[in-house]
Automatic annotation (TrEMBL):
Gene3D superfamilies: P-loop containing nucleotide triphosphate hydrolases (3.40.50.300). It comes from the Bacteria. InterPro entries: AAA+_ATPase, ABC_transporter-like_ATP-bd, ABC_transporter-like_CS, P-loop_NTPase. Signal peptide: none annotated. This is ABC transporter ATP-binding protein. The keyword Cell cycle does not apply.
Length: 255
């Protein structure tokens, strides 16, 4: 579980996160949504330990990050997996090389142990024939699978994903969402995803926090978001005609 308590983050005189508090539970797929510039990426970077909030606490299964020594912080960061926007694979390495990279960097495992783990995670993300291909030789959806395999190869307790669906067609996007959701449940990971994608909200948003101008404006589940009367949330969610229709159908069904 990750507990966030009243965090503030500024850059110079610009106050970006203005006292955000929430809890992300283990085995749950948590989403951060909000308009462009609302502070989602800054918030995710605080969770990753890349930005230090000036005020407030972030606890990872009870451990307050700011109270840990440098080596304890390093160890904790090794328990975090990250899927970057655009996958961020190394172009000069094969799929297998990309997934093995964290193991070679951060563990003392033997070559055969690493190979077994890489084979296992690639199979888990349904990539069996791509080991020796380069990122440029596989589709965007496959690249995301490689990025997910790399993020889970170290058996993380925490998984952070920044726009994991960007650039994918809607069908592939749903497959990637479902894969992240299944992995979260299967390995009991605390997963936090930054997204703009309303399909993701509907499909996998077990807990959603809505940020507005650096504040947490609303939080709830995907079932609750379609019923809320919070105007900022409904403006955001129903900015597309499609979702306006979905809401209308939902209201008609309820009556
Ligand atoms: N390193 C930084 N230095 C200064 N300002 C920053 C830095 N990182 C982010 N900001 C500012 O913080 C604000 C929030 O940015 P952030 O990237 O978190 O938004 P976001 O909600 O993720 O937007 P998007 O959906 O477009 O990615 C923006 O005004 C941005 O310019």
């Amino acid at each position: 579980m990750i507990e966030v308590n009243d965090i503030h983050k500024s850059f110079g005189d610009t106050h970006i996160l203005k006292g955000v508090s929430t809890k992300f539970e283990k085995g749950k797929t948590n989403l951060i949504i909000g308009q462009s510039g609302s502070g989602k990426t800054v918030f995710l970077k605080c969770l990753l330990g890349l930005f230090s909030p000036e005020q407030g606490k972030i606890k990872y299964d009870g451990k307050d990050y700011s109270k840990l020594s440098a080596s304890e912080q390093r160890n904790l960061r090794q328990e975090m997996g990250m899927v970057f926007q655009g996958s961020a694979l190394f172009d000069s390495m094969t799929v297998e090389g990309n997934v093995m990279f964290p193991l070679t960097m951060f563990t003392k495992q033997s070559k055969s142990e690493m190979q077994d783990r890489v084979d296992f995670v690639l199979k888990r993300v349904n990539l069996v024939d791509a080991h020796h291909k380069y990122p440029s030789e596989i589709s965007g959806g496959m690249q995301k699978r490689v990025a997910i395999a790399r993020a889970i190869v170290m058996k993380p307790k925490y998984l952070f994903c920044d726009e994991p669906n960007s650039g994918l067609d809607p069908k592939t996007a749903i497959l990637i969402d479902n894969l992240i959701h299944e992995i979260t449940q299967e390995y009991d990971i605390t997963t936090v995803i930054n997204t703009h994608d309303m399909n993701s909200v509907m499909e996998i948003g077990e807990k959603i926090i809505f940020l507005k101008n650096g504040h947490k404006e609303w939080e709830g589940s995907n079932k609750e978001i379609f019923k809320t009367d919070n105007e900022a949330v409904t403006d955001f969610v129903y900015s597309s005609e499609l979702f306006k229709k979905v809401r209308q159908m939902y209201i008609e069904e309820r009556n």
